[in-house]
Design a protein that fits this description.
The structure is a homodimer of 341-residue chains.
Chain A (H helix, E strand, L loop, with lengths): L3 H8 L3 H9 L6 H14 L5 H8 L4 E6 L7 H17 L3 E6 L4 H10 L4 E4 L8 H7 L4 E4 L9 E5 L1 H14 L4 E5 L3 H5 L4 H16 L2 E5 L5 H14 L5 E4 L2 H13 L9 E6 L1 H6 L5 E4 L2 H16 L6 E5 L3 E2 L16
Parallel strand pairs in A: 1-2, 1-3, 3-4, 4-5, 5-11, 6-7, 6-8, 8-9, 9-10
Antiparallel strand pairs in A: 10-12
Helix pairs in contact in A: 1-2, 1-3, 5-14, 6-7, 8-10, 11-12
Chain A binds a DNA duplex (30 and 30 nucleotides) through helix 2 and helix 4.
Protein name (chains A, B): LacI family DNA-binding transcriptional regulator
Organism (chains A, B): Streptomyces tamarix
Pfam families (chains A, B): LacI (PF00356), Peripla_BP_3 (PF13377)
DNA sequence: GGAATTTGTCGAAGCGCTTCGACGCTTTCT
DNA sequence: AGAAAGCGTCGAAGCGCTTCGACAAATTCC
């Protein structure tokens, strides 16, 4: 392996000079810099990460804790993870992948071993075990998600409440007066991740203001689960003319079932979703949707964490404004009563 | 931060003794070990990763290169990544997440900086730029996937050829004589990742032996894409009575379309898939499938790479045997000609 | 024109750990 | 009984880098 010393010797300067060329922390004459850089290129030198971390006590690594669970919509996690990795690289950081498995111990391990300079946590619960540790940690952390008490922490998330409100407005604006919400699996609510509840709050509040009746049902993502939920919904509220779906796995089955029942979308019934754009656009009926901006969330989280590392930082909650895209699945409330075939 | 020296002092031994307690590389009396371990627990000591890496020239990190692309079926990637992270942790390793973005440069960087002890590469192309570098590298690597020339490399993958053969056998056994293969998007074939072609080879060969006619069509994963492909298939081969789908995004649309056309699965037409078990089990008709064992692949890759790191290793290709699970989507060839409504 | 400042470079001290050789002690062998 | 071997511990060297203080040389100041 080529070391700093090798480069120094090759360039005819001292080791510290090479180090300063690399870090730019002291001024270096143009000629020396050129010579050193040529030597680096010629020898194919790469600084040893361990040595660097030891000497500088910065590893240039950001830890990313992702959930193990598979009941969340996986592509969103993946998209976030990739955005994190890509953005981090752009700032000179690598990403260490931790699974939720280790739980709070992972926070302690990272903190203690100085493996990473900072952490990004996904799948944050309202009362997350990891938060107390994170608050005491000397290394900065950023959450993707919003816990019950975000004080002393940085958080990035979609403004799900606003997203819910936006859905209510859109449908109310089209004349709908009875809306059903097809929610996440019951397990998601039980886990208290918060985002599903926040959406619901936004939906409820705005619906109330707009005089719209709302029915909410959690729903398993399987075809059978959606069928059962749908049946119950029409049973309880036969006058339902619009659906809001916050459950990625349920959108396709829902559309298929409605079609099967002879209810045309959007003529007889409107459907809108809160999901990644890609999913909405490629559904069998392109869905009017509020997008879950996975990439933006990952990017923001990294930028926040890097800002904190560089001291130009702050705790604080960043809620991304929701954006509604109108596609083909929503329309005015049908004039005649809906009559399934 | 608590250091080794602090622990040593607290326990009344030398630093090297503490180190040997930690590593177990020299024998330590039971009493000393107990004392040191108590001090470690009491002080909450965690070895500094950088120092350790520098002194031992082992980082206990495995790099995982995942593709940036989003045209592959993401849950499989994610499942592999999580399996890799979990298995690695079980062996005392952490996982560094690299995206394909950096390409071959990433291999050089990891190698040069000693950031990781080994690498696992996903999304391997038949003629992958990274392979020459990997062959020369001093650190072991394992591929998930199978390149054109695997010599001097370790590879883990599903035996897609056998998987294809298995599908042909199953359908032929049920009496089908005309099979259509709904393949991956054309882009996947163009990228020369190999797995799609290998499946096709297996299908073709075994079909030939069994006297079954095979039609293969690449297919976009969208609803519209599947509709177009399906139309073309029935146009060219009206006698088709069975489908093999190797395209996770196409399974649901295909089932929906067949239903819409009044073709009952499996009474009028059989459908089987090569996809993760979960997807097959939760489709609107539970699918007979050959599972893509994402977890196993991740686990095997880590075990292979760890074995290499510990010297009880070997290059070599590990092809996982495919497993067929019969569910509800395949049945005997219909006796009467298929008559779509 | 000499003092004060800035610029560019170097040497040396460490960062916290692993590991090697050494050493005293106990056990085993013949 | 004495030599050989094994056990348990320690001290010191060194992994490759960053960073601080020092110091000549070049520049600026009144």
């Amino acid at each position: 392996m080529v070391t700093l010393a090798d480069v120094a010797q090759h360039a005819g300067v001292s080791a510290s000079t090479v180090s300063y060329v690399l870090s730019g922390k002291r001024s270096i004459s143009a000629s020396t810099r050129a010579r050193v850089e040529r030597s680096i290129a010629q020898l194919g030198y790469h600084p040893n990460a361990g040595a660097r971390a030891l000497a500088s006590s910065r590893s240039n690594i950001i830890a990313l804790m992702i959930p193990l669970r598979t009941d969340m919509y996986v592509p969103v996690m993946m998209e976030i993870a990739i955005a994190v990795a890509t953005t981090a690289r752009g700032h000179g950081y690598d990403v260490l992948l931790l699974t939720g498995e280790e739980g709070p111990a992972a926070v302690r391990r990272i903190e203690g071993s100085a493996l990473a300079d900072a952490m990004i946590l996904m799948d944050v619960e309202l009362e997350d075990d990891r938060l107390p540790l994170l608050r005491e940690a000397t290394r900065p952390g950023v959450l993707i998600g919003l816990p019950a008490d975000p004080s002393g922490l940085s958080c990035v998330d979609l403004d799900f409440e606003a997203a819910g409100a936006l859905c209510a407005e859109h449908l109310a604006g089209l004349g709908h007066r009875e809306i059903a919400v097809i929610g996440e699996a019951a397990a998601v609510y039980e886990r208290h991740t918060g985002f599903a509840e926040r959406t619901l709050n936004g939906l409820r509040e705005r619906s109330g203001e707009l005089g719209v009746r709302l029915l909410h049902r959690p729903c398993e993502g399987s075809y059978a689960g959606v069928a059962a939920t749908l049946a119950r919904v029409y049973d309880e509220r036969p006058g339902t003319t619009a659906f809001v779906v916050q459950n990625e796995a349920a959108t396709d089955p829902l559309l298929a079932l409605l079609r099967q029942q002879g209810r045309a979308v959007p003529e007889d019934v409107s459907v809108m979703a809160i999901c990644p754009d890609q999913l909405a656009a490629h559904a069998s009926v392109p869905l009017t949707s509020v997008r879950v901006p996975a990439q933006d969330m990952g990017r923001h989280a990294v930028e926040q964490v890097v800002a904190k590392l560089e001291g130009r930082a702050t705790d604080g909650v960043v809620l991304l404004a929701p954006e509604l895209t109108v596609r083909e699945s929503t329309g005015p409330r049908p004039v005649l009563p809906v009559s399934p075939r």
